Amino acid sequence: MTAPTPPDSAPVLPPAGDWVETWLSAPRFAVYLAAAESDRSRALALYEWNAQISAALLHDLAHVEVGLRNAYDRALSARWPGPPHWTLAGERVFAPVYRTRGRRRVDVNEKPRDNLRHAVINAGGPAARPGKVVAELMFGFWRYLSSAAHEKALWVPALHRAFPRGTDRAIHVDGPVGRLHTLRNRVAHHEPLLTTDIVGRFADLVGLADRLEPQLGQHLRVASNVPGLLAIRP
Questions:
Q1: Which phi-psi region, left, alpha or beta, contains residue 101 (left: φ > 0; alpha: ψ -120 to 50)?
Q2: Distance, C-alpha 151 to centroid of its chain
Q3: From CA 167, how far away is CA 175, in angstroms rounded?
Q4: Which domain of life does this protein belong to (predicted)?
């Protein structure tokens, strides 16, 4: 008679055989095999760790993205009080601003106007609540509002008010937000983070959260699983 398995024993994972390449594809798994010096079990453990820390970063990124978009919404609403709400005044808020790109003159506000227009449609049209429109706008929309191209039109009259006095647009906001936007794209596409400076990106997250609201920064430090996962990387 077989003895029962103790209830506190850890489940046994199947060996990291050829099924892993069938699941992930050989090129994808090869990245982890190289990092694990061809140790298949360790490579699979690294893949699991990568998935776990990606999920943890996505959790933290979502917190900061929501904080950023709400802070920007408040700042823009104060600058363009309406009616209509700024989300329905895209032609005014994002009036054409032309820059030379190579041999072409480009309206740097064309894309945000288009993003806003599509967000209004997705939110239900011109009768949609402003909060619904704001929620429909992707991180990429908010990311580029702090760029140098929008400094005079948006940062100086409005967006700097989302942060404490002494905040530098390029150093404290646009740089970190740009790096976090790149990180979010990698996480969203399930890319390896094995060579990513996760410590630096977590510092960007916490630093931006501190500037948006110090208590948010403290909440992130306590709620995040990123530091714990960094400590147990296979």
A1: beta
A2: 22
A3: 12
A4: Bacteria
Percentages of the chain per state (helix, strand, coil), in multiples of 5: 65, 5, 30
Residues ≥6 apart with Cβ < 8 Å to 151: 169
Tell how far CA 122 is from the center of its chain. Answer: 21
pTM value? Answer: 0.91
Separation in Å, CA 92 to CA 143, 153, 190: 20, 11, 38
Distances (CA, A) of 136 to 89, 120, 169, 184: 16, 8, 25, 17
Residues 169-206: pLDDT tens digits?
Answer: 999 999 999 999 999 999 999 999 999 999 999 999 99
Q: Can you tell me the distance from the alpha carbon of 90 to that of 87, in angstroms, rounded to the nearest whole number?
A: 6
Give 25's DSSP letter: -
What is the maximum span of the chain, computed from C-alpha positions, in angstroms?
82
Would you list the domain boundaries of the chain?
Answer: 44-231
